[in-house]
Each structure stands twice: as C-alpha cells, then as structure tokens.
Design brief:
alpha+beta; elongated; disordered N terminus; Immunoglobulin-like; 4-stranded mixed sheet; 25 strands
Length: 513
C-alpha cells in the first residue's frame, strides 16, 4: 500500500531518529500505517488486499508501453532526486508527451519505478530505470523481480491491528519466558513465530541506523595547563561527525572539534590557554564552560560541562608565624594548645587545601586541621610534659593539594619553643593566655619631633583558645607618661612630646588578654 505523498517518509525517518527505544519506534510506525490506510481508503482503494493482488488486478491505465518507459527515463533526468513534488512532475510530463497513451498518475509512476528497480523510489537514478526498462519492456507491468524488503517495506505486510497485537504481546510476555516468541506469535493474528521475530529485528535495526548525538562524559575536569594540541578526554558521536557543531557556550572559540572517525570525534583547545584564576562577571574566581552540540539538519542536541581545575602552581604561605614561643609552667600542661598555625594559598579548589606536619620532636603534635577559602589552620598540642629551660626546635611543614593531587607545593618553617619560669619579662602569664606574635629584636628609634597621637608600632597577640581567637584586648602593664595603647588594635600611640626626653631608653610594658 502506498501513501499519497511519499515525502512523508522523510518525516517518519526524523521521528525514528529521535526514538531511543523499540516501543517508541513501533508507535511512530503504527501512526504512519494508520495515515496511509486512511488516505488510500479515501481514494477508493481496498486496503485489505495484498500488494500482489493489486498488481494483478490493476486496470489498463497501469500498463506501460516502451515509449512511455522511455519518457519515464527522460522525465527522471529532468526532475532528479531532491526536486520538489518530483513524482507529480514526472507523471505530468509522461502524460503530456505520451502519444495516444492514457494519463499517468503520480501513484502509477511511483509504482512503475519501484517495479523497475530494487532501490528506494525516491533515490532511483535515471540510468537504473533505463537499464531495467530496456530489459523488461512491456512485461514490466505484470512481472517484477523479487527485491529485498527494507523495514519500511515490511510494514506493508502488517496491519494496524497486528502491529498493536505485537506491541501488547512484547510488553506482556517477559524476556525470561523460554517460550516467549511462541506466546507472542499466538497473540498476533495471522503471524508466525518467525515473522514476529523478523518484524522485531527489522524495527530494532531501523532505530539503530540513526545514532543519537552522544557526549561521554558529559562533565569534564580539565587542568588549566592542558596543552593546546592535546585532545581532551571526551568523545562526541553521531551519524556524521562532520555535521556536528558547537552551537552554544563557545563564543570566544576556546574549543575546536577534532574528528577521530566518520561518526566520532573529540575536542581540543582552539589556540587559547585555560586559566582557573579568571574572575567571572559576578566576581567569583574560576573558569567554567557549558557547551551545547548539535548535528546539522537534526533536532538532537547534547551538552558538555567543562570545569577548569587549578594546577596548584603556588605554595602556601605561613601567616604571622613567630620565630620563638615561650612556655611557662602553666602552659606546659599535657593536652594544652600551644599555638595555632595558619597558612594561606593563592590557588583555588583542592590546590588551596593544605595539610600540616611537624618533625624534630615527640613532645608536640598537629591536631584539629581546618580549611576554608584557601586558608588553613592547625593547632600545635603538647603531648608530653615540657620543663623550664627546655628548648625544642620544630620544623613545621604545610603541603597543599590536600595530599591527593598529582602536583603539590610545600612550605617549611622553624619554630623554637623555650620553657621559662612562671614570671616572664612581660609579666606573669596565666594558663591559655594569648601569645604575642610581634617579635622586637632591638630598641625602636623614635624621632623627638613626632607629632602627638602618631602611631608608633603595633603589638599583636593571638589567643590559644579557639572560641576567643579574634577577641584580644591590649593595655599597658605599667603606666607610661609618654605612650598609650589602643585597646582593640594594639597600636601604641604618642601622648606626650619627646622633646624633653634625654638619652635614656623608655620602656613600654603591654599586656594582652
């Protein structure tokens, strides 16, 4: 049975191209069969007759003379494949130029072409028509050579009802049933087991012929130092890779398509290096791409998200680590936190996460490691008693990359810890008292002409108690006629002119709490 408009076949193929599973393909073919049947019935055809009966019982207008066959060849040359309303134009040409012949309809032209060749009517060439027509001549109208049927042709041997019965049986009868196809055939009127299996395979093959556009993986992590000519670790496949385009997300031409086979390909950088330190329009640091691929003349699209990874090219830096810490007996209680070590790493992501280690002692250990926004900290905890006048020199290391990246950087620093008596040069130190970070190795030289309220030097201390980390108050341990200290910042200011001061040094005693 032939549909009135063969152009509808292309629309059916597009639907089948989008079908991902067998049931979707079956549904599209069933709808197409219904439309064909309805159109043929409107023309007065008997849709229940097999194709062979229609050919044998056709009227005289379906018979072709040698002259008409030659005109058919000529018309096929005048209106090649791809011409709009090709078969309508061919039918009109033959009807207008045939000497004394009966008018030919579009349907009769298509039928005659299909009987002359085993290929699809829409792609048959004039040379094929001429060759077969010369050989078969007048007998062509009643005798046709058997041809191999495509899945679309095979659908003509299945009624809409049989198609529905097959679909229902495929859903009901499980694949684990040892007599699955016998039971399916029993549910389909007039069809054998072999015919049902063949029908299933033909439709499944039809779906497979049109490959979906796929991208594997659909999320890709790429290091910022990826070489320009090195293919990315992604595979893009479709019907024809030459027809694949990047339609969104590549405005700056960062990526280029690279074919691997006729159907598959990959990506490479298009002459522009990646940079994970890029600042986006929202002020965030990092580089990210969301690419959309499309195969030309198809409605299929696939996406790929590319996250640029920092290659960890910067080492961590210690923040305000003193050269020496003095421990009083009150601070030398086992389990006490002696100091909180802090580092900052310019790298982003995993490259900015540091891990700490110490060497040169068994009296201290690293505990409570934390990281946030490339700032990491760890506490130095006393594990064994520490006596007065005892000296330990620790080597503290901070290694970024969280110890899991291929490339990492390490920074080391020495910290001297000295045990002292209860009274220190800046007064008695209570348990868990703040530790001064500022180290002054000599006297400060101040101009006598310094203006009042000028800032002289800033004293910094750090709490060893985590909850009081940012709450430090400063005051003078002993009153001073010339100096004062800002309570919240630790800045020492001049409050009296130094014009009358002699050469004797002025002592400033500051406490932190």
């Amino acid at each position: 049975m032939y549909c009135r408009e063969f152009e509808k076949i292309s629309a059916l193929c597009e639907k089948l191209a989008d079908a991902k599973i067998y049931d979707d393909a079956m549904e599209h073919l069933s709808d197409a069969a219904k439309n064909c049947t309805a159109e043929d019935e409107d023309d007065g055809d008997s849709s229940s007759q097999p194709m062979s009966k229609l050919e044998n019982n056709s009227n005289s207008s379906s018979k072709w003379t040698p002259d008409e066959l030659q005109l058919l060849v000529k018309a096929a040359n005048l209106f090649p494949a791809g011409t709009g309303s090709r078969w309508k134009n061919v039918a009109e040409y033959v009807s207008n130029h045939a000497p004394g012949g009966l008018p030919k309809t579009e349907k009769e032209v298509i039928k005659q072409v299909k009987s002359l060749t085993s290929v699809d009517a829409n792609s048959v060439s004039a040379s094929q028509i001429k060759e077969n027509g010369t050989m078969m001549k007048d007998s062509i109208a009643t005798t046709t050579a058997p041809t191999e049927k495509s899945p679309t042709d095979a659908a003509e041997g299945w009624s809409v009802e049989q198609q529905k019965q097959l679909e229902s049986a495929l859903k009901v009868v499980p694949a684990s049933d040892p007599k699955r196809w016998e039971n399916i055939a029993a549910a389909v009127d007039g069809k054998t087991k072999k015919e049902c299996i063949k029908r299933y395979k033909e439709l499944a093959e039809l779906v497979k012929r049109v490959l979906p556009l796929t991208v594997e993986p659909n999320v890709l992590f790429v290091e910022e130092n990826w070489p320009l000519q090195k293919p990315l670790e992604v595979e893009i496949c479709g019907d024809s890779f030459k027809q694949v385009r990047i339609v969104l997300g590549n405005d700056q031409g960062v990526f280029g398509l690279v074919p691997l086979t006729a159907k598959c390909g990959t990506l490479k950088l298009g002459g522009k290096h990646l940079d994970a330190d890029t600042i986006d329009p929202e002020g965030k640091k990092g580089q990210f791409f969301s690419l959309v691929f499309e195969e030309k003349n198809k409605l299929q699209r696939s996406t790929l998200d590319v996250q640029v990874v920092d290659v960890n090219d910067n080492p961590p830096e210690f923040l305000n680590l003193p050269a020496e810490i003095e421990l009083s007996p009150q601070q030398s209680v086992v389990g006490s936190v002696v100091y909180t070590v802090e580092v900052k790493d310019p790298d982003t992501g995993i490259g900015g996460v540091s891990r700490f280690a110490i060497s040169g002692t068994d009296k201290f250990a690293i505990v409570n490691e934390k990281c946030s926004n490339s700032r990491c900290s760890a506490q130095l905890e006393l594990k064994k008693p520490f006596e007065a006048n005892k000296v330990e020199v620790l080597e503290i290391s901070a290694r970024d990359g969280a110890s899991i990246t291929k490339s990492s950087n390490e920074k080391r620093a020495l910290l001297k810890i000295t045990g002292v008596p209860g009274l220190q040069h800046h007064g008695y130190q209570k348990p868990n008292a703040p530790i001064f970070m500022s180290v002054f190795e000599g006297p400060l030289h101040i101009s006598q002409n310094l203006r009042l309220s000028s800032k002289i030097v800033k004293v910094e201390a750090k709490s060893v108690v985590e909850r009081n980390k940012n709450i430090i108050f400063y005051e003078l341990g002993k009153p001073s006629a010339y100096f004062d200290v800002e309570k919240n910042t630790g800045w020492i200011r001049l409050k009296k002119s130094l014009q009358t001061v002699g050469d004797e040094p002025l002592l400033i005693n500051v406490t932190a709490s």
